[in-house]
Each structure stands twice: as C-alpha cells, then as structure tokens.
Design goal:
single chain, 346 residues, alpha/beta, Rossmann fold, 2 domains, three-stranded antiparallel beta sheet, 11 helices, 29% helix, globular
C-alpha cells in the first residue's frame, strides 16, 4: 500500500486526490500550523497516523513513498537580496521541507508554489531556491507550470510543480494540455442563484459603489468582445483597482485566492458563495471544510492545491495514469443542505 506524508497540509488536497483516483494509501503523517486544519485532519475518514503542529519543531516522521508539500516561499524575495532572508519564519518552513527529503528519502516528492516565484526579483529568488532543491543527492528533479484550465477544469490557476524521483526511477511524463480534452464548463461548479442564496444569503448583497464601478468597466470589456454578461458564464473579481478590472474568459474562473469575497457571477447577479470555491478547487461540496465560517473556508480553499490537477500529476508520477476526474455536480439533497450553525468550527 502507498505510504503518504504531507506537510503544510491545508485542506488535504492529497487525501482527496488519492481517494478520487481510487488509490489505496496509508496516511503516515501530516502537519499544519493552523489548529482548525489539524482538527479537520483528525476528523477525516482516513486520518493521518501522526499530525504535527509545526514542521519546524523537533519531530520524527517516517519515510514514505509519496511526500507532498506546498511550503510558503515569500521570504525568498528577501533572501535574494540579503542573507537574513532565511531567518523569516516562512523561509525556515521551506528549509524544513528540504530537511525531511534529505533525511527520510521519500520515494517521490511533489512540491507546489505560485508560478511567479520563477520571475520574482528578476529571477533572483528562483536562483536561490532551485540550487537548494537540486543539491538534494540521489534525486532527479523537474519542474513545470500547470493550470487546471489546461486540462478541462474551469479555473485559471498557474502553479509551479516540482517533482523529485529517486535516480534510476522509470521515466516520468508530465501531463500535457490537449485541445481534444473537454473544454472547461462553469456550469459544473456553479450552483443556481436560489441554491447559492440558500447556502449563503450574503451572496445576494447589493454592490458597493466601488464594486459597481468595477463591474461597469468589465461590462464594457464584454461588449467590446461581443459577450453578453446576462447570458455567458463568467466569474470576475470586483473592486481591486481599475488596473485589475479583467473580464477573463467565459467558463474559466480567475484564480481562487484566500480572498475571494469579491468574486462575482454576473449572469446570476450575485457573489460567488464559499461552497463554490470548494468545487472550483476540486473538493466535494460536503467536504468537512463546509462546516467552517465562509471567511475561513475561503482562506483555506484559496491556499490549497487544486485537487483534480494534483490527482492527474500523481497518477503520472506513480505510473497509474487515468483520465482526469471531473467533479460532477453533487446531488440536490447535498447541495441544498446547509451545515448546522452549531456544527461550525469557530
């Protein structure tokens, strides 16, 4: 059975990806600094045997066949400019991830981060990080930028994936975008207006003046491109600044971040509800995170790895290639069930 370990585990996209792929696994360990996340991990249907609160603290995790982590690398912007960058707490998380790989020698490791880490500070940040990874002996490491929309999921989310395999492992082929794949379709993840308002009444709130101006600018873009926002399916981000008012593409959502309360669905005249961010990230709508308050759910979901894309990548790494699973709309009885307020995490 596949032995799995994760760090910076978040909403546990690895767990969901493996389950959706039908891959049996023993969950050896996970870690996250957030106590809400640790509680969700402990209450899952396949909880990790060990749950650590902080990857930087002394611990003794076991060796696994598959190790996945999404360490924050913001501090490396400073590291490229001054040696003290490694003292940033987030930078030491990254070093702890590398320490685990060096000391425990997992069979395969997959690391994920934002794509612009490659170009930040004119490439100086990546010039520090990449040698650190390549210096791990005994591994062949490759990287590529992938986005779910390239493989049929309705979200544009460019992320850097690094895959390390033991030297001498069988050849690994990256998933390749294919024009023959089914096109993204937002109808697979969007609830009806009535369903969304039933789950989160605040989705129907009136537009603040700044949001109204932002939507007007986006409507002008739509007209110029011959789109009708009353009919075509779009999700747009409102109110960021005039420079960021962007129509995007039909049936492809912008990147879900930890702050998606300004994501708007023009053809339904409402804001995106938190449960839909789960679906856009490939999680089921009844994921345990659905018990959380909307703001916390958005924060954790926006920081997660996309489940479908991770499933596709892991399948290729393990030599168990499958057509990428598409998230079918959940049964109406599930979509309409609002978590009891007493059951919500605080």
């Amino acid at each position: 059975m596949l032995r799995v370990g994760t760090d910076c585990s978040g909403l546990d996209a690895v767990h969901t990806a493996l389950q959706q792929s039908g891959i049996q696994f023993a969950y050896e360990f996970a870690s996250d600094i957030c106590p809400v996340v640790r509680r969700l991990l402990a209450e899952s249907d396949n909880p990790p045997a060990r749950i650590y609160s902080d990857i930087r603290e002394p611990r003794d995790p076991p060796t696994v066949d598959l190790y996945v982590a999404g360490p924050p690398c913001q501090s490396y912007s400073r590291l490229a400019l001054q040696a003290s960058g490694l003292q940033d707490a987030r930078g030491t998380v990254f070093l702890s991830v590398l320490d685990y790989i060096r000391s425990r020698r997992p069979g395969v490791f997959v690391l994920e981060n934002v794509a612009n880490i490659l170009t930040r500070d004119g490439g100086a940040t990546w010039a520090v990080i990449w040698p650190e990874i390549c210096d791990i002996p005994g591994y062949v490491v490759e990287y590529r930028v992938l986005s779910p929309h390239q493989f049929g999921w309705p979200q544009r989310r460019k992320r850097l994936f690094l895959v390390g395999r033991a030297a001498g492992s069988p050849p690994f082929e990256w998933p390749e975008p294919d024009d023959a794949r089914r096109a993204p379709d937002l109808s697979e993840v969007l609830l009806s207006r009535a369903e969304a308002l039933r789950l989160r009444p605040s989705c129907g709130r009136a537009l603040a003046p700044g949001y109204a101006r932002s939507l007007k600018a986006i409507e002008l873009q739509a007209q110029a491109r011959s789109y009708d926002l009353r009919k075509h399916r779009f999700i747009v981000m409102l109110g960021q600044s005039p420079a960021f008012d962007n129509l995007g593409d039909p049936d492809v959502a912008p990147t879900m971040t930890s702050h998606t309360e300004n994501a708007y669905v023009p053809h339904q005249r409402r804001f995106l509800c938190a449960e839909e961010t789960l679906l856009l990230q490939g999680f089921p709508i009844d994921h345990p995170a659905s018990r959380l308050p909307a703001r916390k759910m958005r924060l954790l979901t926006g920081n997660s790895i996309h489940v479908g894309l991770l499933s596709l990548l892991i399948g290729n790494v393990l030599g168990e290639r499958r057509a990428p699973a598409r998230r079918a709309r959940p049964p109406r009885s599930v979509r309409r069930r609002r978590p009891a307020r007493s059951a919500r995490a605080r």
